[in-house]
């Protein structure tokens, strides 16, 4: 991501969190994230520790891409769900919620009763 950073060209004016930005175009962030859909959750968790916006957004994108897999094993889906909830503290922008919550949280909960949640 850092190699793609161009802060003068992509200052991400919509981001108002405290983490700062690298200056990576959102389309580039999505492309990189999609290539790393099979990234182990331990590495996704590490990305969430990076203070800048784009690496954390990439982590939520990876979770989203993982959760979109129709044949994702139930244990993997649950692990992504649990990681999202456990690292919810790293969300400081609604676009992170918009990106991952529908697939990561929604797909996990859709077939569960409230007693199973």
Overview of the molecule:
The protein is mainly α and 117 residues long. The protein has one domain (2-116). The protein has helices spanning 26-35, 41-47, 53-67, 74-86, 94-109. Helix 1 packs across helix 3, helix 2 (41-47) packs antiparallel against helix 3 (53-67) and helix 4 packs antiparallel against helix 5 (94-109).
Q: What form results from the Cα inertia axes?
A: elongated
Integer count of domains:
1
Tell me the β content. under 5%
Largest sheet: none
Taking all Cα atoms into account, the compactness measure Rg is: 14 Å
Helix content: 40-55%
How many β-strand stretches?
A: 0
Number of helices: 5
- N-to-C order of helices and strands: HHHHH
Structural class: mainly alpha
**Spans with pLDDT under 50 lasting ≥5 residues?**
none
The span between the termini is 35 Å
Summary tags:
mainly alpha; 117 residues; 52% helix; single chain
Summarize this entry quickly.
Helix 3 (53-67) runs parallel beside helix 5. The protein has helices at residues 26-35, 41-47, 53-67, 74-86, 94-109.
Write the layout of secondary structure elements.
Blueprint: H1 26-35, H2 41-47, H3 53-67, H4 74-86, H5 94-109
Helix pairs in contact: 1-3, 2-3, 3-5, 4-5
